[in-house]
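[SOLVED] Need 3D model of a four-part complex

Original post:
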Amino acid sequence: MPSSDSASLKPMTARGEATRQRILGAAEEAFGKSGFFRASISDITRGAGVAQGTFYLYFQNKEEVLGELVRHMGRELRRMLTHSIPQDLSRLEAEREGIAAFMRFVSQRQNLYRVVQESLFVDEQIYRDYYMDFARGYISALEKSVEKSEIRDGNLEVWVWILMGVGHFLGLRYGLWAENGLGDAELDAVMDFIRNGIARPADRD
Amino acid sequence: MPSSDSASLKPMTARGEATRQRILGAAEEAFGKSGFFRASISDITRGAGVAQGTFYLYFQNKEEVLGELVRHMGRELRRMLTHSIPQDLSRLEAEREGIAAFMRFVSQRQNLYRVVQESLFVDEQIYRDYYMDFARGYISALEKSVEKSEIRDGNLEVWVWILMGVGHFLGLRYGLWAENGLGDAELDAVMDFIRNGIARPADRD
DNA sequence: CTGAAACATGCATCACTAGTCACCTTTGCC
DNA sequence: GGCAAAGGTGACTAGTGATGCATGTTTCAG
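Solution:
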C-alpha cells in the first residue's frame, strides 16, 4: 500500500503528468490574475484546455493546487538562488546577489509570487511553512557566516525575519509595482542599509 | 448638490451612524476570522444583529466595507503612533517606540491587521494607497531627522520601504504568530540591525 | 487484435450568496 | 397626535460554482 493517507489522487503514469502540469500552470495564471477566490475551477480547466471533471482526477480542490504552487515556488526560488550565488562570495556579496536574483524572480513570475502571498488568506499553514522553511535555511547560512566572521554576531533569527521582510516589501514595491524592477542604484541603497544601518557613524555601537 | 459622486449611501443622522459602525465592527471580525471572500454579507449582518437589507442602506458591497476598514486602520495607526512617540525623542529612539507601538497594535487588533493585508487581493489600489500614504509621511520624518543629523543620509525612499517591510514581517511573525508579541530582547535585536547593519565594525563604510 | 486500466468528458445536481424590494417601525418635529 | 423621513426587515430572485458521475476515448501489454 503506497500510504496514500490524505494525499489525494496524485498517482498517474504518462500523459497524465503532462495534463496535471497544464492544470497547475493554468491555475498559476488564473490565481495570479484574478486571485484565488475569484478564479473558478472552470477558469482553470478552460485555461488548461481540459474538461472540468479532469481537474478532480488530479486534485481534491483548489486549496490543494495552491499548496502545490507555493511549494513549487519554494523549490524554484531555492534552486535559482543556489545557481545565482557563487560559492566563494562573502556573506554581504552573497546577500546582494541573492536580493538581486530574488527581485528578478519576482518580476518574471509575478503571478506565482502573488499566489504565494495570497496563500496566507487561503490556508495560513501553507504560508507559514513557506517562510519557516526559508527562514531555517537562511539562519544556518548566516550562522556559518558569523563563524567565518563575515558578518558580526546578533540575534540571527530576528535578523532573518527582518531580511525576509525587506525582501518581501522590495519584491512588492519594485518587483510587482515598478516597471523596471530594482535598479543598481537602489540595490546599492538596500545594501548600504543592510551593511551599515541608519545611525551616523559616530553613533554606532 | 452634495457631490455624492461614486460615494455610495453614506448620509444618515443619528442611530444610523451607530448601526453603520456595528456593521463595520462585525465586518472586521468576519473578515479577520474567515477572510474577505469566505465571509458573506449575511455573516456580517448576523454579527451586527441587523437584517441583510440593512447592509445595503450603508454600503454598496463588501469591497466598500473593506476600503473603509483599511482607511480606518491607517488613521488609527497614525493616531496611535503620534500619541506613543514623544516629540523630543531622537529618530532612533522614535523608531524604537514606533516599532514597539506598532507591534502592540497588531497584537491587539489582529483581525484588522489581517484585513489590511488581504486588501491586496481584493482591490490592490486600496493596499497601495495605504502603504504609499504611510511611506510619504515616513519619508518626510526621516528627511527631518537627516537635517537634524540624527541619522545619516541615504536613499530615504528605499530605506522607508525597507523599514515598512521590516515592520510588516515582524508584525506577522511576532504580532500574529507569537503568543507574547515582540519581547524587549528581540526589539533590541531589531534596533541593533537598524542602527548598525550586519557588517563587522571593521567592514563598515 | 483485444481488453483493461488510465484518462478524459461535460452535464446535472446541490448549496449558497449577492442584491432587491415591498412593506413595517421608530423618531421627532409641528 | 399626526405624519413624513429615516431606519430597518427578511423573503425572494437570479446566478454562480463546486463536485459527482455515467459515459466515452486512449494507451499498451500480451
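Edit: Residues 124-147 of chain A form the longest helix (24 residues).
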